[in-house]
Amino acid sequence: MNKIQNTRKTNLLIILGSIFLTNAILAEIIGVKIFSAEKTLGFAPVNWTFFEEYLLDFNLTAGAVIWPVVFITTDIINEYFGKKGVKKISFLTAGLIAYSFIVISVVTLLTPADFWLDVNATTPNGDSFNISYAFNTIFRQGLGIIIGSLTAFLIGQLIDVYVFQKLRAITGENKIWLRATGSTLVSQFIDSFVVLGIAFYVFGNWSISQIIAVGIMNYLYKMIVAIALTPVLYLAHDLIDRYLGKELSAKMMEEASEDKAFL
């Protein structure tokens, strides 16, 4: 491998790793907000009922908006750097997510400055407002959610890389959509229920039926998005192949499939 090829390979790793890290950490931090997908798009809530007890709509965490970027990036890293690449970046990301939560927890314990509270004491409508309370409420997440989220993230990533490589052994270099979408559908099925089970059943007071109902809704969204983003995966693959060059691209994918990729 010549100097130019080595530089491009390194640049690709840095770019993909940065995209993966940034979106994964952001998704965890903004995930505290729950939004209505139907109302955001101008539709009435679907009002679906599960188990004849729970009324569910497409109320999703804000983090779900950018998680698809993590899905796609995972599959691309797997394609060019193999399962070792995905595992290393996943463990690094999990560590940085934990670090982010620790920093946020410490910051919320700091005593707010009086002038900061005063200048933000009212809303534009003149209503009373406690910005310190709002800040802490938004950024501070429960221990159960943090543990559940990190556990689900790691399990999902490890399952994704395993299924991806198994499908790759069957499909070869063809049918990128099959191994990418297939691995995402399997891993996110597990992810959807693990995070809810740990956060709201083990550490919370949800029933099993509630976990199943909400998990189905979350998974349905992820499944739709995974399929819809297939063209984006092909576009990214094409751009990367052009950047690397046919020779280097083929070599990297071969090494990744044989678990010999350098990282």
Task: Just name the CATH architecture of the largest domain.
Answer: Orthogonal Bundle
Shape: globular
Task: Give the helix proportion (percent range).
Answer: over 70%
> What is the percentage of strand-forming residues?
under 5%
> Strand arrangement, largest sheet?
1-4
- Please tally the β strands and state the result: 4
Radius of gyration: 21 Å
H-E order: HEHEEEHHHHHHHH
The first-to-last residue Cα distance is 15 Å
CATH class (first level) name of the largest domain: Mainly Alpha
Assign the structural class, choosing from mainly alpha, mainly beta, alpha/beta, alpha+beta, or little secondary structure: mainly alpha
Unreliable sequence segments: none
How does this structure look, described?
This protein is mainly alpha-helical and 263 residues long. It has two domains: 3-109 and 143-257, Arp2/3 complex 21 kDa subunit ARPC3; 112-140, no CATH class. Helices cover 73% and strands 5% of the residues. It is built from ten helices and four strands; from the N terminus they run αβαβββαααααααα. It has helices spanning 3-30, 37-40, 67-108, 114-119, 131-139, 143-171, 176-202, 208-228, 230-244, 246-257; strands spanning 34-36, 48-50, 54-56, 59-61. A two-stranded antiparallel sheet has the order 1-4. The protein has a two-stranded antiparallel ribbon with strand order 2-3. Helix 1 (3-30) crosses helix 3. It starts with a helix and ends in a 6-residue tail after the last helix. The mean pLDDT is 85.
